[in-house]
Amino acid sequence: MRQILLIEPDVDLLGQLSEKLRARGLGVSLANDLPSALLRVRSHVPHILCIASSLAEQHDFMDRLLAEPGLVGIQRLVLVAPDQLRSDRTDQVSYEDVDRLVALALEVTSMSVPPESGQGEIRGDVQQIALVDLLQLLAMNRRTGVLTISTPRGAGELRIADGEVLDSVFCRLEGEKAFYRLLGENEGSFVFSPGGPPAMARLTRGTSALLMEGMRQKDEVERIRGELGISSAYIAAADPPEEEPRILGDILNALSRPRTLEELMDELPQLDLDILLALRNLIERGLVRQVERQSELVPLASAEQLPLLRALAAKLVRPGFPGALRMIVASSPSRLRALGHALLRIAGASASAEPPPTAPVPHELARIRLGEGQDLVLVGLPVIEAFSPLWTLTIPGSAIVLCLDDPSSPVLNSVCDSLECQTFLASECMPGFDELEPSHVAQLLRMGIEHASS
Q: Which residues contact 415 (CB under 8 A, 6 or more apart)?
């Protein structure tokens, strides 16, 4: 993996740029001043230095930095704003030109890999020579080195010894999964850099067997994706059964919040084909379904309804609990996670600043701005009776408890009765309620406020 050292005093800009580069499969080290830069260099020598123009113009800074022995011969680039880019400066690159920065990084040969005598680099475009053909050529010539591939989706590397592929990485993937993904890439460029054998061998099949299996998997993945008909939609899981084979359970757990198919396949370590076969099984059993993506946010209420809703919310704030109106949503943990996703597609909603807890305890799901300084706070209450002692600490001060599950929990009903807090069963007033549909969620919240005020 190519390593870039970014030296930039603006911490926010540093974080944004590093995130984009890491998403393209590059290793990134960060520094915002000279001491931190020297510390990074001494711990791991980068392949390329990227220095903010504000620092590169300081002769004292550059003299002290380049006096570091490990930086001898390391390529340097100066990061500038797009409007400051000069055509006569080949060492400049714009902060926004991530593609050029990635391409330059991939062109740099590792200083730690000694080149093979008599054998140079091989460069080309994937459109002109397919990776399958290139790997067969390298195998025939028993070449050893690193094949770096730069694609629109990110960067990858194949580490080869005597023509056999021994390791593969692509973006965040590694091993066979990364290898098969790279074979499916039809755009980009490659560079083969001769060098010593790789330190790690995560691929045990021979290159010929890998190529044959890779082409089979590519065809099968395309076929099954076509059968499933999932493109840009989200997919989400129902409450998972208690026992499922490992891969099915992994998929259901990953889909506890809606994801795209690409996100699901990137997150799980299993091969793409195995994930798609298991996903088809779950869809056929009704345990996973598609959720259409919406480009526009759903309003909580119409322009005519909102003033009345805001007035009702203000009246429902409990004495001794000033501030925003609190409403409790009680259900299973998986339905609450799905509801949290739908809440963020309602206009004026924002996620909680705190990450969701790992234990099934009450927690804030979202906050919705009603206008004129009035907010609505939604608190999720996972209905796990082992944690019921916490309910008595959460429910006081809330206007109402919205119960998604039918029938609702007798223990929860008893707690609400003792605390004189109303409950509202979604299924009784909204048959077919879908917690993944933001319009359903908005309607439920409106009905809950109206019910609590009646």
A: 388, 391, 392, 395
